[in-house]
Fold Phosphoenolpyruvate-protein phosphotransferase.
Amino acid sequence: ERAAAVAAPVTPGALADGTPVPLLANLGSPKGAGEALELGAEGVGLFRTEFLFLSSKEAPTVEAQQAEYTKLLAAFAGKKVVVRVLDAGADKPLPFLNDAEEENPALGLRGLRALRANEQILRDQLTALARADADSDADLWVMAPMVATVEETIFFTELAHELGLKTAGVMVEVPAVALLAERVLNHADFASIGTNDLTQYTMAADRLLGSVATLQDPWHPAVLKLIAAVGEAGRTHGKPVGICGEAAADPLLAVVLVGLGATTLSMAPAALADVRFSLGRYTIEDARRIAQAALDADDAPAARAAAQAAAAS
Ligand code: PEP
Ligand code: MG
């Protein structure tokens, strides 16, 4: 019986009332594709391209990048694949993008900021992605990390469209962009919330520092409020709002995130089964009610407890 259960096809992510919530994988290399698919990933919600080039001294060529992206897109033929352009800096320095010593690298020239300071590297990456896309039948979306302004949103999405990429969005990792999500989504085709950095910047707590780890908790109602604002803006514009930070891998928080307006969830493939099971226990009304209970709490532990109580009632 166990063998039969393992062999059964994994059902797509959905709430108890049938509302689809596509469950996607976070990947750092095309090598993880097979396992993600076996675990039921319906596509890729975050492909972290910087992991391909962490040891490169020089910027990768268009050809070298195209080869990697082609492998990734081939593995996910017919499925959605969201590729993030290089998120260099802070916890993920790349020698060819981050040369200056910074006192506060998390607040420095990282993500899209570093790419704008080295625009040819961004253009090469988008060109490599567009070429790989042209030869594949995956549904490629591209997004930029560490976006803080509407102007940066316009810069990135216009450049991506100009270089031949159909769907260009931004990550919501900086509170400023969550607060202006309504205006950001005038320009971006979608938003994807990176709860790791969004929590770090909302709580002013370094995600790498153990001594402030209790503040680095995505259950904090301040973080949830920002997510709700993005969900609301997504609904207004009829544009997708994904979650690709670690928060999506917490089975109960995943329900809360859907209640706040997330339309897809992306996570480490190992978390997919538990999240799929959890979503299947609640309707969209339940999810909204559980989310509201968490939003109304004063701090992260209280939000978790309130959500648990609401989920049980
Ligand atoms: C995030 O910040 O939540 C995110 C998904 O990006 P990373 O963890 O790679 O910074
Ligand atoms: Mg991030």
